[in-house]
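Q: What does the assembled structure look like for these inputs?
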Amino acid sequence: MTLEAILKNPAIWKGRQQHEGREAFPTRHAALDAALPGRGWPIGALTELMVANEGVGEFTLLLPALAALTRQQQWIALVAPPRIPYAPALSNAGIALEHVLVVETDSDKRRKNSFWAAEQLLRSGIFSAVVLWLDAGGDERQQRRLQLAAEHGKAWGTCYRPQSAAQNASPAGLRMILQHHSSGLHIDIIKNRGGRLRELTLPHHPAVTTEPLDSAITYLHAHRTAERPAGL
Amino acid sequence: MKKSRHKPLWASLYLPSLLLDTMTTDGDNPHAVAIVERRHNRQQIRSCNDTARHAGIRPGMPLNSAYSMLPSLSAVEYDPEHEARLLHQAGEWAMQYSSIVSLHPPCHVLLEIGASRHLFGDFGNLIATLQQGLADIGYQASIGVAPTALAANVLARAGVRVGTANLQRLPSLLGTIPVQFLELEESIIEGLLRSGIRDIAALLAVPAASLTRRFGPQCPQAIARMLGQHPDPREPIRLSDFFQRSLELTLAIDNTAALQFTTQRLVGELAAFLIARDCGVNAFELSLRHHRSSDTRLPLRFLQATSQVRHLHRVLGERLAQVELPEPVIGLELSATTFSQIERDAADLFVKSRGQQKTLGEITDKLCSRLGADAVYTLDTLDDHRPERAWQKTFPDSSRDQPALNSWPERPLWLLPTPAPATRVLNLEPGVERIESGWWEDDDVRRDYYIARDNSGARYWVFRKRDNTETLYIHGLFA
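A:
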């Protein structure tokens, strides 16, 4: 019996094998990619984002990955967004709008219908990413259904929940608390299947202009206005 | 939320029988295996598994005696390089629990766990997880935890299942451990025992100067590092960062078509290497060895880093087809050192199984039937200066043309259906965007837009009407 012969036995474990088979789509934030086991948003799993205060940059966080998907002709869906998803801003972020499906749900059955729609979309196998906004609630059973639907449809599912949800157990593969921080978006990873828990801060994306107020006045589209036929 | 710099804390995994652990294969009734090495000019047992030990075989025993006790014994030559590879693999395995892992050959893997400790409540949970993980992969191991690497090693080797994060507690914790568990030369250990120094407490009582005089400086230095009085920096391991595989040919190959076939295996191994590291190769070189001529070297470059085996093989095949061989090839070597991250194709990642896949029409019809036809739509931009008219709903259509990418100044992700007067204190960021448009229609818009921030950090898109600068209206959120 030689060592070589022994090592051919499939029962013998070799270093890297454990990490294989975990698929992810890069977040395009280097620090965040480094913190996630597949170096990106997990595919075939639910990601939960708990937001302390609306407006901290919680949706901006997803845009680089969403933009990359739509530019590769992959469908994404926004389910029950809290307000009008503003097409010019999405376009600025590089998102190919023709691959973004928006699903609104009315107020009286909002929660139930949002879950149902998100589950259908995740499960369909057509949508690569589905983002769901939950203003309240979302119990463990419903989250499990979403997680299973994401597994079944091999999709990246993301669900926004209030920060209070962080205390409850959840079957989601990845859970983060998002908070405002003076230097950017603070991310506290409280569940990271196959990876480690940690905290990090992503810097603010736009550089704030430092010009004095008066000199910074711009006349939007002035040149384009001039091109319009007079008297239109 | 910000953490202060944590104090280092080491978990030492003591893996005394790596070579044997990876050989024992048949479960309940394992075959007797021994590792042998040449010492004092004879083959002797270095270590053996339990089956061999039950038959009476012991380390240090001459191989001939072992064979006479157990003729069915499998003896494997000790291979320190292979042992080092196994230790490195164990280190890579440990990297799932800590990002700082270093090796302490021949038998220790050190994990820095100060940073991960709070995640596991206390390090007891982490140790239990490590212990279970090592058992699952079939490694005999014991674990020690201490604020210095050497103290953790001693605790692990002595099998002390109590750890500490406190440097001050080390002397009392280590005190009762016999000096044999220290990593000192055998001659020093023997000298200590002869002097009546049996445990670490007795050793610590001896002044350093006296130890230096009797045993040389190595002994007090090791003690100082173990107690944290001297720094003991450790080099963290990295995944190997180059690729090299060679192939000896039993039959010389004299045509490039046959070479193409032979290179398939090397290219396949290269692709596996790249995929495991989630990177692509920018350049590699194939060397063809001959009997007399110098090597034929074929360097290849890629404009874009790739890990696709078909692409690699096609490019290599094209290159090989142009080569004129000076004489038959007797060996090949493929090496690559330049790698970079590659953009993986989303279509590959989100592979759908055809059977379960619905069409877009099916799913949108289903959603519309329950939620209403207006509730499901795609988005488009419009060339209108009034923010509320710069977008529209469109019907989902997978064949829609990709619209030209427009570019606006910074815009909020959420637009309020109707602007609302601000009810909270907002700080305006510098910079104004004046929007004047639509005067030829009824809803004349003349506004100065600002970006504002409230004290929770949320950013808003706000405006003042130019004919009424009193009120600040919120029109959107940046989210």
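Chain A touches chain B through 99 residues (CB under 8 Å).
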